[in-house]
Amino acid sequence: MDELIKAQKNPAHQMTEKGRAIEEESFRIVDLEAGAHGFSPLQWPIVRRMIHATADFEFKELTRFSEGAVEAGLKAIQEGARILVDARMIACGLNPERLRLFGNEVVELLAHPEVVARAKATGGTRAEAAVAYAWEKGLLQGAIVGVGNAPTFLLALVEAIRQGARPALVLGMPVGFVNVLEAKRALMEAPVPWIVTEGRKGGSTLVVAALHALIRLAADGGVDTSSAFREG
């Protein structure tokens, strides 16, 4: 009963009893069908929610974590870190009430006038220009960066990291065919915490799912409180 009351008051959980029941049953099914895995108790809730969001169990095999990545992400969220994203779709998909729990601001720069002007002047992508702008303005330091769309954003981010940028966590999940594999490999060699989906698969939906999972873990004190996990 105490856990039910806690969930009802916690915007990181579904608002209604029926909503919570559906979500928990979905998690139970994912746990059952996914079977054995090597993820830690902090990693699995993130992978599970990514599977839940896509109905694609291949992410059990594709998702990789650097050492301490989840812990770094939870600390950043709890400290109110900025969340910088490469696509408006991610910003729109994040639940405002959950973001308000720790005061995490979401920043998406592709339509910023200075970013657009820089892209036109250089002939590069707006994604590249957005990273350059964020690096110059100090927006990368200590931020959680979510990349679900543009490999050029991720490649530019890795270059900024080589120059000294230090985001708290990078979710490297761009989808596509050009420079996707190269961008993800580059991130996995970078000296920052990261969560990556290997191969061509990725997308904004996955970044949103991973961020919501991190926020829920942060709100629950780093413990997965879903009945599915406790029973498993």
From TrEMBL:
- Quote one Gene Ontology molecular function term: precorrin-8X methylmutase activity
Give the EC number: 5.4.99.61
Q: In which pathway does it act?
A: Cofactor biosynthesis; adenosylcobalamin biosynthesis
The record, for InterPro entries, names:
Cbl_synth_CobH/CbiC, CobH/CbiC_sf
Supply the alphabetized keyword list: Cobalamin biosynthesis, Isomerase
Q: Which Pfam families match?
A: CbiC
Highest taxon of the lineage? Bacteria
Cobalamin biosynthesis precorrin-8X methylmutase CobH/CbiC domain sequence ranges = 22-216
* PANTHER family, A to Z: COBALT-PRECORRIN-8 METHYLMUTASE
Task: Give the record's family classification.
Answer: Belongs to the CobH/CbiC family.
Q: What name appears for this protein in its UniProt entry?
A: Cobalt-precorrin-8x methylmutase
